[in-house]
Every structure is written in structure tokens, then in C-alpha cells.
Amino acid sequence: MTNKMTRWFLYFLGIYGLTLVFFMGKDFLFSEEQIDAKTQFGAEGDGMTDDTQAIQTAIDETPIGETLRIPAGLYKLSKNPDFKAITGYGESYFALKISKPITIIMDQAIFQTEADGQYGVFWVTDTADVHLKGGFLIGDKMPESGSLVSNIAILLQDSQKSSIENVYTKNHSQGIHLHHANDNLIRNVTSEFNYGSGIINFASDYNTIESCIVRNSGDGHLSLFGGGKQNLVKGCVVTEDRKGFTDQQGITVESEKNSIIEKNTVSGFYYGIDIKNGADSNTIKGNLTYNNEYNIAVRPGDGGNNLMTPSHNISIINNLALNPREGSERGIYINIGDGHVIRGNTVEENNLILRDKELRVRYQKANFQISDK
Fold it and tell me: Which of 64-91 are b and which e, b meaning 16 or more Cβ less than 10 Å from the residue's Cβ?
């Protein structure tokens, strides 16, 4: 009897143990080793120590597919002259380089660079499945010299299936630059006070830029450029509110094909949503544009033989293009190209300007024009 009870006891004990493993999971019995830039690689995060080499070593030593954590702190970074990227815009230098699939979690970590040194933070190149999460990438001041690519916060170059999420960038030549990089996700990024674009997608395809904030920068604040295709810009807020900055561009769609600009808010620019230079078969839908000289424009370009190419087959659908800048009547302005569809938009009276007579006849009554009278 005793042996039977013992067997039953051991049986239930075994069931209990298996249940414990099931519910507690690997965090209880099979916990993964934490890879930590501070405790394992000597990064200080005190704002005074140069942590460039310590963090680069941590990146290099993180196994493929694993996660590196960079804890809260102020990490001073310096230029690595060996980390030189070549793009269509010129040369770019960086403090840190990533060339293998890893995840870096940087919540509450601040990375500080020196603008006069003309370098950026992360160069992600020739890889896939790199995921950057959290963190503040801040230059000590807005760059006053150099080029559009001399101080890029993050360059994602020739890389695929990667993501940049919940990152803040400030005081760079460009915030996020995707360069020949396909099938990536940029989400919940805030980029402001850049010399050039806050986010630029150059010659890159199948990327999603979603729920981002870009403000008070230069060039096209959020730019699709260089012949990319099938990209999505959705749910972003793009604004310019500095005094005297009256000639900026909000979202630019330039030489782009089959991409979608959807449910964004754009205000404070000369050109709010700017379609130009050979763009073809793009869809602009459900956006709110206001307080721009041209809320939405389809036009040749900014000058020069290579920047004056007509755009065709642009669908502008169900947008609110209201309250252009004082004195302007350019809610939606189309002055070049064939095959456009302009339907279901709301503008103020006389603010739908379609230069082509056939276009006017077809779509003048297919949109809503409101009046204060």
C-alpha cells in the first residue's frame, strides 16, 4: 500500500513539475543570458566617457539573431574613420556599424554626437533582420556645414526586412535614410531639427513608414525619392512651425511609382504634399493638409533638365485640403501630366485648380467645394 501511494505521489509530483515548466516557461528554468552593453562590455553612459568602442564591441560580440540591451544613460559617441558609407549623395561617416541580424533595445538610452565632426550614429549595411528599438539620437547642435548626408542619425543601406521603431532623432543632416533598402519598417519615429530630411526613402522599395512625426527640418521633410516603388507612408504628422521657414516641403513624392501616401497630416509648408519629377501611378488618399501655400500639388519639379519631368496617373482621393496659407487659393493644384484621378476631396471654393481643361470637365464636380458664404 505504501509503495502504491509512493508511486502515485511521484506521479502527481511529476505532473506538477511539468505544469510548472509549461506555465513558467523558459524565463523560469531556461532563462536566456542578457547581453548588456554596460555590465558586460564596459560602456559607462555617464556623458563624459567616450563609449564608442565599448558599444561597437558589444554589437560585434552579440550573436546573430540575439538581442543587445543598451541601458539608460548618456552615451558619448565619436567618429570612426573606418565606417565610411558611399551613397548617391556622397560620403557619410558613422560612430557605429551593424552588418548582421541582431536586435538592439535602447529604451531611455541617449546617444550624443558632435555636429562639427560630421558623422552619424548607426550605419546598418549589407544585412537583414536588424531591429533598432527605442533610444534618443541627438547631435549637440544642428549641423551648420557639410552635406545632406554628413550627419545621418541612422543609415539603412542595402539591407532588408529590418525595423526602426520608437526612436527619436534631433540635430542631424538627415534623421533616417533608407538607401537601396527594401521591405523595411519605420514606425513611431520622431525626427526634428535636421538640416535635410527627417526621413528619406531613396531608391528603395516595399517600405512602410508609419505613425512617424517629422518637423522643423529641411529639404523634403519626409521624402520618397530616387525611383522607389510600392512604398507606404501612413499616419504620419509632418509639420513646420518655425518663423521665417516659408519655403519648405512636407511630403515629397519624386520619381516614385505605385506608392501610397495615406492618412497623414501635413501643415506649415510651401508645398504640403508635393508630387513631381516623373512620379507615376501613386495614390494620395485620406490626408489632412492645411496652412500650406500649395496643400497638394502635382508639378514638374524644382528646375534643371532632370528635375522637370511630368508626373502621370496620380490618384488624389478623399483628402481634406483646407485653409491654405493666407492669400493662397491652392488647395489642390494640378498643372501637368496625364491620367490623373481627382475625386472625393474637400477644398474651399475656387481652391481646386486643374490646369488641364479635360481634367476640369471630368473632375470639377467630383469633389466637394465649401464656402463661408
Answer: eeeebbbbebbbbbebbeebebebebee
Q: How far apart are CA 62 and CA 35, in angstroms?
A: 7
Q: What is the pTM of this model?
A: 0.91
Q: Of 181, 46, 67, which is closest to residue 123 (Cα–Cα)?
A: 181
Confidence at residue 15, expressed as pLDDT on a 0 to 100 scale: 55
Residue type (1 letter), 184: N
Q: How far apart are the C-alpha atoms of 253 and 233, rounded to whole Å?
A: 10
User: How would you class 12 by CB atoms within 10 Å of its CB: exposed for 0-12, middle for 13-18, buried for 19 or more?
Assistant: exposed
Average pLDDT on 328-356 reads 94
pLDDT in tens, 208-218: 999 999 999 99
**Of 323, 322, 328, 362, residue with least CA distance to 343:** 362
pLDDT at 301: 82
Give the full edge-to-edge strand order of the sheet including 220-225. 80-87, 90-98, 120-125, 152-157, 174-179, 199-202, 220-225, 249-254, 271-276, 294-298, 330-334, 352-354
Residue partners of 53: CB distance under 8 A and separation at least 6: none
Beta bridge partner(s), residue 298: 275, 334
31 confidence band (pLDDT: 50, 70, 90): very low
